[in-house]
Amino acid sequence: MRKFLRYLATMLAALVLAAALGTLVPRPLWPAAAKGEGTRHILVLKNPIHTDIAIPVDDGVRRRFAFLADAALPIDAQEARYIVFGWGGRAFYLETPTWSELKAAPVLKALTLDASVMHVDVAGAIKEPHPDVAGFDIDEAHFAALLDYIAASFQQGTGGPVAIEDAGYSTYDRFYEANGHFNALVGCNTWTAAGLRVAGLRTGWWNPLPMSLRWSMGLYD
């Protein structure tokens, strides 16, 4: 038992050190040599365990993600201001619409290995400044690259992205099959961080938690 406790303490210390270094060491190490004018404003939304990327809606974005309208998502609605994208574990996402419905099996899958899904939500105006909202201005080239990154996260079927039947929390969101597998080390927040790096921003080297990502971007962006 004593050996086990020492092993457990060593593992926890290693994880804490990795999380600290993942926050403090920037990725990429050096900022880009030059950037264009930041004409596109994107948002990162966070809750205690998860982050999403909110993309402002315009005609070009609607055309790029036209398949969302085919699933009856109201991206053409006058009040639609953002399309919010998130990547995460299938079991946890689909089986935990609220914290009161938390179950052991989805948590276990999230901590080990699970299939992944994309969650898409249509939102109206999002308040800034707000503790759970971070805004960033990026140029057109990086904005296009970010859209490519998001689109590539959707698993493609014969007719395009594969919507998961009857999966959603409301009339304003849908779930889709996604590429990649989810686990505790490579999860929703590392997906968000990778997208932000594609968008020309700097994150920490490894950001498994929303607060880690927020802190690192506060240091470098």
TrEMBL record:
Domain of life: Bacteria
Protein name: TIGR02117 family protein
Pfam families: DUF2459 (PF09601)
Species of provenance: Mesorhizobium australafricanum
